[in-house]
Write a structure and sequence with these properties.
By secondary structure, the chain is of the alpha+beta class. It is built from nine helices and 18 strands. The protein has helices spanning about 5-15, 25-40, 100-120, 140-145, 200-210, 250-270, 295-305, 320-325, 350-365; strands at about 45-50, 50-60, 70-75, 85, 90-95, 130-135, 155-160, 165-170, 175-185, 215, 220-230, 240-245, 275-285, 285, 310-315, 330-335, 335-340, 345-350. Helix 1 (about 5-15) runs antiparallel to helix 3 (about 100-120), helix 3 crosses helix 9 and helix 5 runs antiparallel to helix 6. It starts with 5 loop residues before the first helix and ends with a helix.
């Protein structure tokens, strides 16, 4: 089933891998996708988002069949300049000086090859929508800015999880960030340090009192950045840190946030400093049952092409979280990427082929 043109698929992926596409600077990548989609009979809409644009590709099909949405993101982490893909008999790597970009260009290559297969074979299909978002790697900005009312599909299959083809992510966490700012009192550090309140010292005590790392099997917390002070001869008046909390359970996330607030306020007050906390919910979590309709479609699509499925729980977020929050039933599937965000990144050629087969199988199942 589905005789995939592997040589062409590899070329599509490696061509895209060579295109630098850091977050917010995806113009060249977007142009490549736009050109490929139009050549394959899909309509293309470019939708502004900050300094970049999202792409919505639409392939018309049998209106009696249910429309289906596929999604991936076009930006990558750095270093992504001068990527030199190396193709061996079984896998594709970078030359070790850059990332490869299979996160998430492997998925886009699968989508393009699926469109080519449909065009060449005349495979029956319903309407197909493909959303390629920008600036995903720096906070899911592309999908957050996208107008969901433009979509016809009620089911979305996001190919943005690592690992070999077959992984089906059923659960992903809620994620919030908190910025803690401590204001002390400046004084000359050599002449009258006792007149000052060192905000760095206060913040340091707060950080040592906060539980971080893996708090339980569903919850994590991490201090990400710290700033403060102006010079060594000034008792630091300002200090701040940014931290995150993630949990598969919203109640647990809020409970941890409450612990953080209590520690910050008590420590600052005891030290005579002032505190401020700014909190942002980056995205909501989601939970999908194994017997849910979209999970069943993913599982059956894999079974049809001889791929063993594996239900998973993820500790990271993706565009999938935003789709589900917006009321579009979405699930995250693996795209074959390995050791992502490192210069050791690679993708197995068989996973590019298998992923394309899964895309086509999902399309055929949507009736």
């Amino acid at each position: 089933m589905y005789n995939i043109n592997t040589k062409r698929l590899i070329k599509t992926f490696t061509d895209m891998a060579k295109i630098p596409s850091p977050s917010w600077k995806e113009d060249a990548m977007r142009a490549y996708i736009r050109k490929s989609a139009k050549e394959l009979g899909a309509s293309v809409r470019e939708l502004p988002c900050g300094e970049s644009k999202n792409l919505l590709l639409t392939l018309k099909g049998d209106a009696k069949r249910k429309p289906v949405l596929f999604s991936a993101h076009m930006d990558t982490v750095t270093p992504c300049e001068n990527v030199r893909p190396l193709v061996t008999g079984t896998k594709i790597t970078s030359d070790g000086t850059t990332i490869l970009g299979s996160d998430d260009k492997a998925a886009i290559a699968m989508f393009i090859e699926a469109l080519r297969y449909i065009r060449e074979t005349g495979m029956p299909h319903g309407p197909v929508e493909i959303l390629i978002s920008c600036a995903e790697e720096v906070g899911l900005h592309g999908i957050k800015a996208f107008n969901m009312s433009l979509l016809k599909s009620k089911h979305a299959f996001v190919f943005d999880s690592d690992g070999q083809i077959g992984k089906i992510v059923l659960q992903a966490p809620y994620h919030s960030t908190m910025t803690i700012t401590i204001t002390g009192k400046a004084a000359h550090a050599g002449m009258e340090p006792e007149r000052g309140i060192n905000a760095i010292n206060v913040l340091s005590e707060i950080i040592t009192r906060l539980p971080t790392g893996r708090l339980d099997h569903e919850t994590t917390a991490n201090i990400g950045t710290i700033t403060g002070g102006r010079a060594t001869n000034i008792v630091a008046e300002k200090a701040a840190c940014v931290l995150e909390v993630r949990s598969l359970v919203l109640k647990k996330l809020k409970a941890q946030e409450a612990v953080i607030r209590a520690v910050v306020r008590e420590t600052a007050a005891r030290s005579g400093a002032r505190s401020a906390i700014a909190r942002t919910m980056e995205y909501a979590g989601f939970t999908i049952r194994p017997d849910d309709g979209i999970a069943r479609i993913a599982r059956l699509a894999m079974e049809r092409v001889g791929i063993q499925h594996q239900f998973m729980v993820s500790g990271g977020g993706s565009d999938t979280n935003i789709f589900n929050k917006a009321g579009i039933r979405a699930i995250n599937l693996s795209a074959g990427m390995m050791k992502v965000h490192t210069t050791n990144e690679y993708v197995m050629i068989r996973d590019l082929v298998d992923g394309t087969k899964v895309v086509l199988s999902i399309i055929e199942l949507m009736k």
